[in-house]
Request: fold
Amino acid sequence: MPPTQKKIMLSAVQPSHLLTLGNYLGALRNWVKLQDDYTCLFFAVDLHALTVKQDPKKLREQTYLALATYIATGIRPETATLFIQSHVPEHAELAWILNCFIYMGELSRMTQFKEKSARQGQAISAGLLTYPALMASDILLYQTHLVPVGEDQKQHIEITRDIAIRMNHIYEVSLFTVPEIYTPPVGARIMSLQNPMCKMSKSDPDSNSAIYLTDTNDQILKKLKKAVTDSGSEITLDDQKPGIQNLLQIQAALSEKTPSEIVSEHTGKQYGHLKIKTAEKIIETIGPIRDRTLELMTHKDYLHSIFQAGAKHARERAQKTLAHVYDQVGLIKGRY
Reply:
């Protein structure tokens, strides 16, 4: 790679539910910070969403919403490539080939597969099992160097690395760039407001457990007031107080301060004060993002033009990788 050429960074969010504060702090905010340092591709993984049953109308709306949110948080479509996964058919095409180089044992050991399949009972889709192959395809198609992910996705990046190394070794050529993981030091794992032992999830059935990026100011305040805290009343850095730790982590991430500094600012204060101050900080941060997102949602023609141009650019990159893979595995790539 020439020394002046930027490395490639890629990341995506599944539009199966509304995006949360956790998505912002763990992913979107870091995309914005890194977008000038890398050649960036950001997209909505609508194909991944199909591993569980979706309301078609809602899925389409939330896919638009995800891309609008990317732009509202500060991603610049004139420099980053923004697109929808299903608009680049090379993702599914390469995923099949990768499926033929992944072992069943590797797939069945995936933590997310074990957790989700346990919840779904007997109606487990094959897509849920082979999900890592499609995710690996997402990454490897673009010769990606850096993938910003939360803790829960590290295992999927590790299997992606394994596949890349395996196929590079089998064919004795550099088919794929082996991607590196980027995890932000603060705010990578924001916990549920109702169960601070679990990660804040956009799929949690309890809407009070998460702050959505489309929540009104009143909704944010009400959710923080209802947030589960702990016994006692002193605000301290105590691992035995996960509810308080979560609020401190949220404030620290939003303020770009340390949790210790946040504790010092609340010396002698009660839990209720911490909740209100956390709510105010969240409103200050995501209020403008929400307003801009909702404004963009009234201009879907503009959003369509963005992801249409993004898909064209993404396909140009993806086709180069896929052609190389076809050649090495012995397939004849047609041009029709």
The radius of gyration is 21 Å. Residues 207-294 form a domain with the Tyrosyl-Transfer RNA Synthetase fold (CATH 1.10.240.10). The beta strands are 8-13, 39-44, 81-84, 146-148, 180-182.
